[in-house]
Amino acid sequence: MHEPGSQRSMASYGASLPDSVPLVHQRAQTHLALLPSFSTFLRDLTQLERDFSAKASAHIGSFRLAIARSSHERGGDSASLETALGGVLEQCDLQAREVGECAERVQREVSAKLDEVGRRMGDVGKKHHAFYGKLMSQRDKAYETRDRSRSAYFSACDSLESARQKKAGAKEGRDTDKAQRAYDSAYETMLLAKDQYLLDLDSANVAKQRVYEVHLPSLHDDFQLLEASAVRQLEALLARMVTLHHESGERTRACVQKAQDALQLVDVDADQQAFVDAHTRTLSAAYEHPPDLVFEESPVWHDTDEFDTSPTAQTYLQNVKAKAETRLAEVAPAIESKKREVSGLKNLVDAYSRDAALGDTVGVVENLFNVSHETTLLELQQSELRASVELIDETLGDSASTGLRPHDFKPSSFVTPSTCAVCESSVWGKGLSCKKCSMAVHAKCELKVPAGCAARPGAGVVRAKSKKAGAAAGAGGAAGSSTTSLARTTSSASGSSSLPPRRAVPPPGSNASPSASSRTSSSATLQHATVLYPYAASSSYELTLDAADVGSSLEVVEPEDGNGWVKVRVPQDGRVGLVPGSYVEIGAAAAGGGAAAGGSGPGTVTALYDYAPQTADELALEEGEQLSLTATGFAAAEGWAEVSKDGRTGLVPAAYIQAA
After folding, report:
1. pTM value surpassing 0.85
2. Which tens digit of pLDDT belongs to each residue from 370-382?
3. Residues 351/352/356/362 CA torsion (nearest 10 deg)
4. H/E run at residue 537
5. Which of 188, 285, 334, 505 is least crowded, fewest Cβ atoms below 10 Å from its Cβ?
6. Nearest-angstrom CA–CA distance, 239 and 259
């Protein structure tokens, strides 16, 4: 058994399978689904005591089919988990007659626990997947903020262009001065809007980078951890079930030992590595993170992605930086505290995984995920704030923080009107007030107040002046705009072949798809159908009828089901499948034919090929030898015949013999 804490390096979903949350989530869900599935299986199994020998084997076979249908999602037959589960289920089938007295203990100690753990782990998985949506919403929120800033910038450019046109058409005198002031104000507003756009653009890129380089990989690893924890829980509970069977009697000891050996083969790390190897080539080879967002100039105002560094803009950027630094001072200690908590919980999860008796593993994993979610959101916010501070420092240099005395604005309610220190209009109702110097401003004007608080009313406030600036020439090309789809889709192959308890064995070199079903007793009568037209199968459940088959006789296994399909068997090779009812003509019921017709009845048959038995109820064949067909004959099971050889009676593939 591979211990979770061993030194062997474990494959990381986050590092190896970028931007593949749907894929790893589906894998985790598939593993989690095993817990309630096994719980239901064992609960039903304990109710089959009265007729266990006949019914339990069929039930186990059905469950093995259900597991086989989804096995490809867990690595297929090569996965150690699938091998272990197959071994356990096989031993369940062999021990069916001994399970009566321990059925209640299995229900109480294994089945109920599987249901509880499966339900709780399923809830954890759902919450974690919901967090993925929340993380993507945070990313989209940063994009939306950038889009709003861009729209505001474009709107400001439109206003500036309108002011420019009015200034150009103004008459000499008072109208000219008014138009010039309006143009200067519009120009200043445009520059501020551009600065905010650049800030939000950078924040959006930082959020994108953080999400795709840090948080999404971490989310992948969390799903990997959930998957591993579920598998280990399943392994532990199945081991308990096997132990109960071991205690039921000496006659089952050998079977129980085989089941224990099978469980020892579970190697979560190896299965996960195989999963990574199977998808790395397609997911990692040509994968690239979405490109950075770029500055887009207004269609009516040619501009560049350079920050405006006028006095008004410097004041705005200084205030943005001050607010960011204040928030950073609050976020940093919280992140460090969360990281220490995450580290401790990871150690606890590792210890509980090695020894489930230490405590509630599911509860610890849930706590780990909750704290990780909080840390992720704080780190994302910290990254955006740091990026804003660094960009402002790079833009303003020493002016970004030298000699600043920021105001301490707090939300206030103005019962009587006060004058805004920036725009000089009335502040009434909701607004901001500096707790040090009692300056009153609108919330929208906060970032325009110079950082010159002198702890007395009105100190350090500088009214924004209209600045003269020429219209921007057509400098700088239009920035390329790229739209990147950030949602990844994962195609999931649908459909899987059935894996029955009794396999069908086509003759050597045959391309016929094996059909299968449980062994059934011989029918008293057989109904036949005549092929009217050729038919090409479109799925593994259907049967192809060639032109050469037209006019031949088929055995009706199941009559038309009301949907226009008939299940038939080809007597010559035992193939079974569905064909359209309009392509065959159903004849009257007839007694089962002899060996040559594929029915039942005594006779002599000749072996066409060598065959080595796979189970105890099968017989070996040597090419050319003669065997006696029993009364059951070809009706033993679909694709099988019952024969006698050297005093022994057993099954052989129907396609390997023919009437002598």
Report:
1. no
2. 999 999 999 999 9
3. -170
4. none
5. 285
6. 8
